[in-house]
Write a structure and sequence with these properties.
The structure is a single chain. This protein has 516 residues and is α+β, with helices and mostly antiparallel strands. It contains 13 helices and 23 strands. The protein has an eight-stranded mixed beta sheet with strand order 1-14-21-13-3-12-11-10. It has a six-stranded mixed beta sheet with strand order 16-20-15-19-17-18. The chain has a four-stranded antiparallel beta sheet with strand order 6-7-9-8, with helices on one face.
């Protein structure tokens, strides 16, 4: 889905001194500046990218949890196939593949001479190792490292350039999981010094400060234009804007409209969507959210349209369930209006649930994500109109990952969930009752059955209908208070070109270049 250019340039006004803390600005090769540009790409240069979240989970691509970490590692790792900006699966480490007549065996022909960042050539054994590693069940767990790989029956190197992957039964979505990173079989430090096959190679990481990568000169495909990309961690939203205005950051995505409006330097500002589902995620296992009427009451109490107006000047797309619009054939826009704003209906349901005077609960929100903080503040105000008091607890990202996501020690939270793969199950599998990622403790036998049926069918239309049934069940039972796929504002140095929006939460740094 292509996005529009919000504004070619923001007004250029006098800029103060460069503020410390987020890099030393872009390096425009050859002193090209903005004068006399031909638009032709120039090889070279380096940029500093501002990000709101430290990469404090594992850098191992098979174990990464946070979307922000995956966004960065997208540039370092590749699978046998990879997505492009049109949402298509294109060849990567494999130059082609065939599918057996019964739809259960994928035979991949590896691309000649693909190199890892450590200089080794990718072999069939590396591919077998990588896929088997994803399919392995870690000690102390009941499921594979990558849940979808539970379907893998065997992985076999047929020769030096050919690998066959056999799954238990035909799966219409399985090829999308072959984006899983191919890594060296004899390398053990992926969590701290990652080695992949992508257009950029890892250089260094300093916790709470930066993550540095540089162009991989032996990349098999079209090489990156830029020499170096430094991601600077700026977890404070105000500091992020100040560093943009100070010139020490060249590119920053996932800004709010309010942040974009505060920029006082000459930036290109692009508008897309974040490709995620923002919601008030509710812990269905704790009172009062173990009561479906309470959850439904909150849905009626929230005015999503007003929230969008207040937090993003009306930008963003209402969702209504756990799917965002880029998944075109699965997204059901009608669910966005399943709970029209109706405070009286909300009060009626609260009374029926045994809370005629409302209740008090806590929204735990990661403090480094200003859009989620802003949303939580507006929602708390709206809920007060029906007698419900929402106390906002802001925590750092590491605390959120450990306590909320991992420990499930929370009542509610405002965040966004994305899909790491271009398939519907990437969004919906997490709400199956026994899924390790089911942080809200959702437990619905009808949902489990519909999802299982969708996974097992070999008919595309039937699968689409079953996934939509899953979305309807989530909506009907108010599993969460579904809000929006947030607008994504990207501020970029006007000397840079080549930015592309993907239907996933990624930024393809290999496409960016300084124009001559």
């Amino acid at each position: 889905m292509k996005k529009k250019l919000l504004a070619l340039f923001l007004a250029l006004v006098m800029v103060g001194a460069v503020l410390p803390g987020c890099g030393d600005g872009s390096k425009d090769p050859g002193g090209q500046g903005n004068n006399g540009k031909t638009g032709e790409p120039v090889k070279g240069g380096e940029i500093t990218v501002g990000i709101a979240q430290d990469l404090d989970d594992s850098l191992d691509p098979h174990q990464t949890v946070a979307a922000g970490t995956r966004e960065v590692l997208f540039n370092i790792f590749e699978g046998l196939v990879k997505p492009n900006s049109d949402g298509e699966m294109i060849p990567a480490v494999a130059e082609k593949y065939t599918l057996s007549e019964d739809g259960t065996t994928y035979t991949f022909t590896l691309r000649e001479g693909v190199k890892f960042h450590n200089g080794q050539t990718v072999t069939a054994e590396d591919v077998v190792y990588s896929i088997n590693r994803c399919a392995a069940v870690p000690e102390g767990q009941e499921k594979p490292l990558v849940a979808a790989f539970s379907a893998v029956k065997s992985v076999e190197a047929l020769d030096e350039k050919t690998v066959a992957v056999t799954i238990a039964q035909r799966d219409l979505e399985f090829i999308s999981y072959m984006t899983a990173a191919i890594i060296p079989a004899d390398y053990e430090n992926q969590d701290t010094a990652p080695v992949g096959t992508g257009p950029f190679r890892f250089v260094s990481r300093t916790p709470q400060q930066d993550f540095v990568m540089e162009r991989f000169e032996d990349y098999w495909g079209a090489p990156a234009w830029l020499d170096k990309v430094t991601y600077k961690i700026c977890e404070n939203a105000d500091a992020l804007v100040m560093n943009l205005n100070g010139g020490s950051i060249d590119l920053c995505a996932h800004l709010t409209s309010a942040q974009a409006s505060q920029l006082n330097q000459s930036f290109q500002v692009l508008e897309g969507t974040m490709n995620l589902v923002q919601a008030i995620y509710l812990n269905n296992a704790v009172a009062p959210f173990d009561n479906v009427k309470v959850r439904q009451a909150l849905c009626y109490a929230v005015d999503v349209d007003a929230m969008l107006d207040l937090t993003s000047d009306g930008h963003g797309t209402k969702v209504g369930s756990s799917m965002y619009p880029s998944f075109g054939k699965y997204f059901d826009a009608s669910l966005a209006d399943a709970y029209p704003h109706d405070p009286e209906k909300a009060k009626e349901l609260l009374a029926e649930a045994g809370y005629p005077d409302g209740f008090t609960f806590t929204i735990t929100v990661p403090s480094n994500y200003q859009p989620h903080v802003d949303t939580a503040v507006v929602l708390a105000q709206q809920l007060s109109a029906v007698g419900v008091t929402a106390d906002i607890q802001k925590v750092d990202w590491n605390t959120w990952v450990n306590d909320v996501y991992g420990g499930r020690n929370f009542q509610s939270t405002v965040v966004g969930f994305d899909s790491s793969t271009l398939n519907a199950s990437g969004m919906l599998a997490r709400w199956v009752s026994d899924n390790d990622k089911n942080m809200i403790n959702y437990n619905n036998p009808d949902y489990d059955a519909a999802f299982a049926a969708a996974q097992s069918t070999t008919d595309d239309e039937e699968q689409t209908a079953l996934y939509k049934q899953c979305l309807k069940i989530l909506s009907d039972t108010a599993a969460n208070v579904y809000l929006q796929d947030m607008a994504d504002f990207v501020a970029m140095d006007p000397a840079l070109e080549g930015y592309e929006f993907y239907p996933l939460y990624v930024i393809d740094m290999a496409k960016l270049y300084f124009a001559a």
